[in-house]
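Continuing the series of single-chain predictions for the mutant panel. This is the parent chain; the variants come on the following pages.
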Amino acid sequence: MPFHFPLPTTSHVSFVNHLRSDTHPSLLLTATTYRGVLRDGLKRHKRLHPSSQASNLSSVLSSLTDYLPYLFALDAGLNARCTSSGDAVVISQRELVVVWRPILTASIPGQEAARVKGRSLEFEVAYVLSTLAYTYTLLARTQLRILFGQVPLTADQRITAITSATKSLLSACSIHNYLLSRSEQSSAALPIAECTSSVFGALASLALAEATLLAVLKDDPYPAAVARERNKNDTEWMIKSPEIPKVRAHLFARLCVAAADHAGRAYSLLVNLSSMDRTLVRYLDDLRRTARAKACRFLAIDADLSGKTGDAIAWLRGGKKELGASTLDSHESNKSRGFAKFKKDWTEKREDKRIEKDGEWGMDAGRMEEGRVIDMLEKKWIKQNDTVNYQIIPPTEPLLATMPSGREIHSPKSFVVPSLDAEVLSRMTAPPSPSEAVFSGGVSDSGEDKAPGYDKEPVGAYPGAQAELHASGTTYY
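Parent structure:
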C-alpha cells in the first residue's frame, strides 16, 4: 500500500508542426522542449532498476511540473479560454497526434500494452496529469517504505513519514477529481478506457481510501508492535515490553468503514471493464477487505476495553472472515496445521524479501499485515478468556450486521491549474531564434520496449554478436 503504478512513456511530438501562435511565437517551441525533457525522463526512469526508480521520482516530478504550465497555456489558447489580453492565442494547423503507452490496460502476460494514439490536446492533458498523479502515489510508497524496514523507528519518524505520504495521496486524489470533472465537461472522446470518467472516479476514490487508512495508521500502535516483534534488529524487548497506548477505537472503526466504502466504490467502477488490468481490480478488492477487517479489529478493541472479551474475539473472527481467512474452532484448527501454516510462512517471507529489495511490495493492500495483527490479538485474548474470565463467544454474523457507518476525515482540495507567470509569458511574444532547436530527448523511441540489460552481449559471445543475432532473427545458445 499504496498501489504500485508503473509510469507511462510517450513518443516525440513537435507542437511547432501542428499548431501556430501569432501572439506568442516562442510558446510552441518552448513547450515542445519541455515535453522532450519529460519524455526523456520517463524513458530513463523506465529503464532504471526497480531499486533505483524510487530515488529518481523527484526528477520525474520536476519534469512534469515544469512542462504543465506550458501545456495549459497551449490548452487555454487553443480552446479560447484566455482570461486576459496578454494570454496566448493558439490556432490548429493540422491534426495533433500524440502517442502514449497505457499502463492500466490489460495485455498479454509478459508483454506491454500497445501504444495508443490520441488526436487531440485533451488526450495529452489527460495523460500528463495522470502521470503526475501516479508519481505522487509512488512518492507516497517511497515515504512509507521506511515503516517496513529493518531499522527501528521512533514515534516522530513514523508520524513524519505517514504525514508526508498522506499529503502525496491527497494531491493525487485532487488531480484525479480534476480529470473527472474535466472529462464530464469535455465533448472529446478519448481513445482508451484509462481516460474515461469511470477510471478517473475510481482512481480518486482509491487515493482517498488510502489516505484515510493512513490517518488511522498514524495513531495505530498495533502494526508497529507486530513489525517490531518480527524485526530481528529490534532489541528493545530485552529492556521493556512494548507499550500499547489506548486508541480511539470506535472513531478509527468508522474511518476504516469510510475507507472501505471508497475502495468498494472504486472496485464497482472498474470490475466490469474488461479492458482494465486485473492487478488493479484485485488490489481494490483487497483494499476493501483490509479496511473492513481493520474496522472489525477496532470494534474488537473497543469491546475489550469495555470488558467484553467474548465480543472482542467474535469481532476479530469477523475481521478474519472479511479478509477471507477461515475461522475454525480449536479442534479443526489443529487439523488444518501443516501445509497451510508452511504456505502462510513462505508467503510472508516472500513479501519481506520484496520489501528488502524494493520490489512490488504491498500489492495485497495490507491484507497480510492486518492478518498478523488480528492473529496476535486473537491469541492474546483467547488465552485471557480461557484462564481469567470465561465469556461466551457469540456468532460473528449478527455483530457484522451492526457495524457503524463511515466517517470522513479528509476533504481533498481542488486542483489548481498551473499557469505561466506574466513575465515568462511576455517573453514568449518574441519570435524564436533561428539557432534554437527543439529538444527531443536523448533516448530514441526505438528502444522504448527494451528492458534493462537487453543490449548486453550474450554470455560467451564475441563482441558485436548481439546486433548480428537480432538482424538474422536467430537465437544464440
